[in-house]
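User: Need the bound-state model for magnesium ion:
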Amino acid sequence: MKDFPLEDLNSSQKEAVFYCEGPLLVLAGAGSGKTRVVTYKYAYLAKEVGINPSSIFTVTFTNKAADEMKERIFRMCNGGWKNVWIGTFHSLCLRILRKHIERLGFKKDFIIYDEDDQNALVKRILKDLNMHEALCKCIVTKLSNLKSNLITPESYISSTNEGFEFEERLGRIYMRYQNELRRYNAVDFDDLILYTIKLFEENEDLLKHYSEHFKYILVDEFQDTNKSQYTLLKYLCKYHNNICVVGDDDQSIYKFRGANLYNIFEFEKDFPQVKVVKLEQNYRSTKHIVFAATEMISKNTVRKTKNLWTARDWGEKIFYCQLCNEDEEAKYIAKTIKELYLKGDYEYRDFAVLYRLTLQTRALEEYLRIEGIPYQIISGVSFYHRKEIKDILAYMRIILNKDDNVSLMRIINTPSRSIGASICLKIEQEAKRQMISNYEAIKRLIKDESAPTVMKDKLFLFYTTIEELSQRKYKDAASMIREILNATEYLEEIDEEKIQNVLELINFAEGCSPQEFIDKMALLSNVDIWEDKKNRVSLLTLHAAKGLEFPVVFIAGCEEGIIPYFKAMEDPQELQEERRLFYVGMTRAKDLLFLTAATQRKLYSKVQKQEPSSFLKDIPQQCYHCIRKDYSSFIPTLQEETEKPKPPFTTGCKVKHPTWGVGVVRDCYGEGDDLKVIVNFPSVGVKKLALKVVNLEKL
Ligand code: ATP
Ligand code: MG
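Assistant: Bound-state model below.
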């Protein structure tokens, strides 16, 4: 093991990395190096044990985490391998399905329906059944839960109780939904897992092939797997039981997506010969943060106890600040970030503001903007959900798969071709009557002698555009997008900002095959598009923060009804889940943790009185400073400053140092002989200088 970096691991981590025969459960607290163990174990298996890298099936929680892991492993092993299987459950299953889905009666070029597509499809089904569209979201969630619990439409229908109208209807919707997807040659996210399991269940040869091919299975964030994912893992290690799962039962926070906390407890029963390794040293946070978070989570009853400790200093206490409303709260956060940044200890990328509800971003964004602080929101309404992006992707999808009715109907009149609702209805009726795809229906309508000429002309134009685009050969996805834009004159109808977005999409598509690109886009999650290399403050939900770490963390809205969320407050299980979410948030912080709350907040267009979160009571008092309404102290400071003589340098101005060259001033403070200036020099970084002794030239 001459090249293996053993010194990077403590003794329990080493134990977990070196144990390679049979099932292994690494059960450990936040920041204790679980993800590090997975990464090193992969490198160890590939480099020292001699397992072919393409035979290690490694599951991470996001695509971004997978990319980072790949990068790190390649660096450790001095080289890259082409055919590695490191990814999310969805992306890994997609690879298997692309090879074998024909055995399940789908075509190889099937497409993936994302949440928007699912909503569009369910709405159409609801309309057909004369049900209210408002039920859509609830139905999509219910369907997803059934699927992640491996309940098929048939088994659901046979299990429903007679006389329960909603259940009966849900059964019918489920059946319809699955049939329609099949007709469109489409699968949704849950199907990716379900159909892979189905492949294994129905094809012993495939099961044998894959479970023999994968010599080792590695899983990070195991506490958030659902039943179908766990079942898949059991299939994959069926012949050798070489599986290592790592997780923290205190960080299971995706129950609403079907995650089953009990998987982590079941693992020991399912694999009786399991070896359990606990990691107890936290490397991330200061003692105050580790102690506070550990005490807080210890109030949950359904958990395995752990002793988390850290060798780091006590550090600063946690700051708790209650303000009068959400605007003051946001102002406090923005001012504090600015102040810490100007002091020079932190860059903007070192800060994260976490929140429970997306509606909280409104005020936060406003005050960050006022302070001139660069930020990025890592949220669902991201670049890739914009209309223009979705339109272009819909064109790509219909070119590759003519059965995709949802994409077809999305772009049939975008840009405008005067194909209105009545023509669309006609197409859909025709398709249903003849049991064909909408695209095929268009083709037949064009040839139909009895159909009105005006309609036929419009459809003909659309049809020939798509046909021509389908017959070309494309170098890559980017060239396909360019041809689509040419053929449809899509850019003519949209404004400059949208054009820029489309151009950025082209950049992103460069070098990918069209199919690869569409798959990649379909599987992107919020965190995947986070540009962590950019020097900006990150705004993200507590859920999205899982697995990440930041030097300075703010948790905004620490109030009853927000965290814990009001819907969860009545149910003891849900309440424990909320506590875990709060624990995840607290344990993201390395050095400084700020908890903020408002006494009054506008929520769902009503101003409400707010109480501090009950979780705060479970943080030991010696761990935090209470800076109640301290925000007002900013105002006298600001007023004083206006009366004082102006400092020689202002924030943002450029200066020249005799040896370090040009830099940008971050702050200038003090008076007379004691004047100090903080400057960021690209050559040497941030420096604090006494103006008495250095000669700075203002540029
Ligand atoms: P989470 O529970 O948030 O997923 P985790 O248990 O996966 O955390 P990691 O992210 O792997 O923990 O590690 C947390 C931090 O501690 C990282 O910055 C990592 O580099 C560092 N770390 C882990 N193990 C060691 C070690 N043995 N020596 C030094 N640093 C370590
Ligand atoms: Mg981790």
